[in-house]
Automatic annotation (TrEMBL):
Belongs to the glycosyl hydrolase 28 family. It is found in: Secreted. Its EC number is 3.2.1.67. It comes from Coniella lustricola. Gene3D superfamilies: Single-stranded right-handed beta-helix, Pectin lyase-like. One of its GO terms (biological process) is cell wall organization. One of its GO terms (cellular component) is extracellular region. Specific in hydrolyzing the terminal glycosidic bond of polygalacturonic acid and oligogalacturonates. It comes from the Eukaryota. Coiled coil: none annotated. GO terms for molecular function: galacturan 1,4-alpha-galacturonidase activity; polygalacturonase activity. Keywords: Carbohydrate metabolism, Cell wall biogenesis/degradation, Disulfide bond, Glycoprotein, Glycosidase, Hydrolase, Polysaccharide degradation, Repeat, Secreted, Signal. This is galacturonan 1,4-alpha-galacturonidase.
Length: 434
């Protein structure tokens, strides 16, 4: 009872829940190296509806086979222990749970309604990803890399107070889900040969949302190597607040337009109070170019899309290596035979009402001084763009921050206001040092 009332007090909203749990299943761990997945499945079978499933503290569960925890309803998962995924690459490549988008492969997925997953600050999911980082060297999109945690076709859920370590691929993925609160999650994926092979942490995004609506992510941390958060196609009504991202690629919308002939909408995204340390990009939008090369998941392109009503504000940035304010429309397969983006510019994208405000910090001096790079395709509509108070300065403390705007309504090439009658076009002084 004590537990139940503290739960109600700490929830910022009420999850439909008529009564306390009618049953509790404590998942046993074999402790002898055999697969604990059958016991986990059994626990969810018995307690996955109006029940509670407990992974005990200080207990390690070996996960050697895929977990499709479906048809859950009104369940609390107390993830107090540690789940450790096996490194049997042959098994995971053959048996992951698949989703069509980029043909992702999921090791553990939850589906259903009214699900609370609480790690109580002790829960850990350990993907043992090093084997995947080594295997995927140069082929970030290598088929079968397991996603350790996925909410799939979930309505009403809370996930909080746990860690995901050494994820084989993207860390925390939400697909076809809605009304989700993610709070106090810690993600860390680092490769033991990252310095020698910096590319090998590709595709280790922190959080990804795909075809999902109304998700809030707060008070969390990620050190994962690729995008900290990536709002992928079909992400609507997303809210992020108080995130620290270390050694990530920043906060991304996209890449959109990977699937030829498919329209990718993204709408109503607010991201605020973010600290980015050692980031590749800041807050950015990326789309594929206008010609498909090879096929998804490795290649693709020549899709269309729209990004509407986006606000990125209060970013503190240290040692960023690209423009913190960025639109780029030239994603392509990272292989040979890719035609030039200028020859085949992205076609059929609309960017409307996108704001970057109050970015402070400094850039890695080795990589130049461009703080704003909004390069829209001539065949995109880029309007109602606002960039206010961007004071990210070159690390040297000297020099002038520069800006590039291409095909952005209301701005000239150096992002000056070109049309004073356009009320939307606003760009305040940024990063100009004496
Ligand atoms: C491992 O432990 C489980 C459950 O405790 C038991 O059923 C199984 O026989 C054990 N296997 C080995 C190889 O010891
Ligand atoms: C788990 O282990 C820690 C460290 O040894 C200990 O402080 C804690 O009391 C243990 N928790 C339980 C529930 O046994
Ligand atoms: C979920 O429940 C439905 C019926 O309620 C059933 O048809 C389906 O097989 C179940 N799915 C799983 C994965 O158990
Ligand atoms: C999604 O979940 C709902 C119930 O929550 C179910 O009726 C539906 O069949 C599921 N869809 C898929 C694609 O599994
Ligand atoms: C959005 O999700 C929250 C839970 O995170 C819920 O309280 C709220 O009602 C949802 N909003 C809508 C419009 O469904
Ligand atoms: C932001 O999140 C961190 C956890 O990453 C937490 O320690 C801190 O208290 C949060 N700050 C605010 C203002 O809530
Ligand atoms: C892009 O895709 C469309 C179909 O959606 C097709 O008609 C067009 O030829 C393609 N463009 C190129 C450059 O391949
Ligand atoms: C975006 O937000 C606006 C204003 O709140 C709302 O009218 C619109 O329906 C939202 N778009 C989507 C796709 O939910
Ligand atoms: C523009 O986007 C912001 C969120 O960033 C939203 O509050 C506002 O309503 C949008 N304006 C229009 C005209 O949709
Ligand atoms: C700008 O963002 C910083 C965090 O990076 C915050 O401390 C500060 O209060 C913000 N300023 C305004 C005017 O909101
Ligand atoms: C900035 O990041 C680069 C790697 O991108 C690193 O070599 C350098 O030491 C960092 N600088 C500081 C002051 O942290
Ligand atoms: C300037 O902006 C106004 C208002 O958005 C628009 O009607 C007008 O066509 C623009 N003029 C030029 C030259 O772009």
């Amino acid at each position: 009872m004590r537990f139940f009332s503290s739960l109600l007090l700490s929830l910022p909203f009420a999850i439909a829940q008529a009564t306390a749990w009618s049953k509790t299943c404590i998942v046993p761990a074999s402790g002898n190296g055999t697969d604990d997945s059958p016991a986990i499945r059994q626990a969810f079978q018995e307690c996955g509806v109006n029940g509670r499933v407990v992974f005990s503290e200080n207990t390690t569960y070996d996960v050697q086979s895929v977990l499709q925890l479906h048809n859950l309803s009104n369940v609390q998962v107390d993830l107090r222990g540690t789940l450790v995924y096996s490194t049997n690459v042959r098994y995971w490549i053959q048996h992951g749970s698949h989703y069509y988008f980029q043909n992702i492969s999921i090791a553990m997925e939850f589906s259903g309604t009214d699900i609370i997953i609480d790690g109580h600050d002790t829960g850990v999911i350990d993907g043992q990803g090093q084997v995947w980082y080594d295997l995927a060297l140069g082929i970030g999109g290598l088929f079968g890399r397991p996603i350790p945690f996925c909410l799939r076709n979930v309505t009403n859920a809370v996930a909080r107070n746990f860690k995901i370590l050494q994820s084989g691929k993207w860390n925390f993925v939400m697909v076809e889900s809605r009304n989700i609160l993610v709070d106090n999650i810690y993600l860390s994926s680092t490769s033991d040969d990252y310095q020698a092979n910096p590319g090998n942490l590709g595709n280790t995004d922190g959080w990804d949302t795909i075809n999902s609506d109304n998700i809030t992510i707060t008070n969390s941390y990620a050190n994962t190597g690729d995008d900290c958060v990536s709002f992928k196609p079909g992400s609507t009504n997303m809210y992020v607040k108080n995130l620290t991202c270390v050694n990530t690629a920043g906060i991304a919308i996209g890449s959109l337009g990977q699937y030829e002939g498919v329209f990718d909408p993204v709408e109503n995204i607010t991201v605020e109070d973010v600290t980015l340390i050692g980031s590749r990009n800041g807050a950015y939008i990326k789309t594929y170019m206008g010609k498909r090369t090879y096929y998804p998941p490795q290649g693709g392109g020549n899709g269309t899309g729209s990004v509407k009503n986006v606000l990125f504000k209060n970013f503190h940035i240290e040692n960023i290596t690209a423009a913190p304010v960025l639109i780029q429309q030239c994603s392509a397969w990272a292989g040979w035979d890719v035609p030039s983006c200028s020859e085949y510019p992205a076609t059929g994208f609309i960017f409307d009402n996108i704001t970057w405000a109050n970015f402070t910090g400094w850039m890695n001096e080795a990589v130049g001084t461009t703080t704003v790079s909004l390069v829209c395709s001539p065949y995109s509509e880029c309007s109602n763009i606002q960039v206010d108070d961007i004071t990210v300065v070159p690390a040297t403390g000297t020099g002038t921050a520069s800006r590039i705007c291409t095909n952005v309504n209301g701005f000239n090439a150096s992002c000056g206001v070109s049309n004073s009658t356009s009320v939307e076009a606003r760009m305040s002084a940024d990063g100009v040092l004496t």
